[in-house]
Amino acid sequence: MDPIRVLVVDDSVVVRKIVTDVLSSDPAIEVVGTAVNGKLALTKLDTLKPDLVTMDIEMPEMNGIEAVRAIRARRNRVPIVMFSTLTERGASATLDALSSGANDYVTKPANVGSVAQSMESVREQLIPKIKALTGRPLGLGAAAARPAAAPVVARPPAPRSAPHKAPAVLVIGSSTGGPEALAKVLPALPATLPVPVLLVQHMPPVFTRQFAQRLDRLSALRVVEAVDGSPLQPGTVHLAPGDHHLTVRGTGRGATTMLSQGPPESFCRPAVDPLFRSAVTAYDGAVLAVVLTGMGSDGRNGASVIRDAGGTVVVQDQATSVVWGMPGAVASAGLADEVLPLDRVAEAITRHLARALPPQPAHLALATGALR
Hints:
Blueprint: E1 4-9, H1 13-24, E2 29-35, H2 38-48, E3 52-56, H3 64-73, E4 80-84, H4 88-100, E5 104-107, H5 115-133, E6 169-174, H6 178-185, E7 197-201, H7 207-218, E8 222-225, E9 236-239, E10 245-251, E11 254-260, H8 272-282, E12 287-291, H9 300-308, E13 312-316, H10 326-332, E14 338-340, H11 345-353, H12 362-370
Parallel strand pairs: 1-2, 1-3, 3-4, 4-5, 6-7, 6-12, 7-9, 8-9, 12-13, 13-14
Antiparallel strand pairs: 10-11
Helix pairs in contact: 1-5, 2-3, 3-4, 8-9, 9-10
């Protein structure tokens, strides 16, 4: 198996050295070149033919966002991973880069600590994303003499162990490629959506606040970064804040959001599985779940709980996913009622919600009925 060819673009000598050394330490990766700005990177693309590009944002002559736009204008689909800072400005620029065609991002190490700590931070974030975006199994070196991983195959949905229920809530999970997928799905949903929406996108703090604001501007729905204890109302989307799990709490007055900093699940916080499980409990299984593009398998276990309780699960297909990890894990486990291209997901949501229940937890519905 040939190594993954990477072009590193950054105007900082120190960062180029750190990234190059980290990537070169993995036998599955070869750094085939470096560039100090986007303009030079463009000149090297045709000659080096990299499998992936790492791109800084702030650079002289041509910055990272301009470079991404120029690369995509050439109809070049090489995966691009941005290097961002954990700041308001960095988050805004990264979201601009993603909307311009970048595939994913990693955060730069803070300007503290040792070079060894910076290298470890880059190694943990960047290498898994490089392998996921280029279709290389994790842990597989370039010279490893073993067959390629078997393709992920969607299985027909398994029979439910509970009657199928009309949804009273919509829950969505996404990761790599999710920002752009969500920017297509949510604006296609009507403002009159009859149920509340809860959303987990794997993102750090600062990023989620700005992302919620962008989605709110794009959508007829109201999109907010979730806060603890907010009542769940139809037509409002609650986005999990970075570093917090978002779950649903059933109360005597209706369902509300709940935030926590419990242990990461699937190496993530926020994670999709806690949200899916809690929605089943709060709404007695009357849940519509959507799993969009993303690496890993977060959401698979929660999808199993949803289907066992009578809920419905829709996932994005492989052809339109940046990485078919999360949706692929659900589909290959036989937990997806529908596997759809991205441009059909909003229609499926609207179709399933056409028979939606009143947006309240089951125990509250029972209590209300008892008072009549």
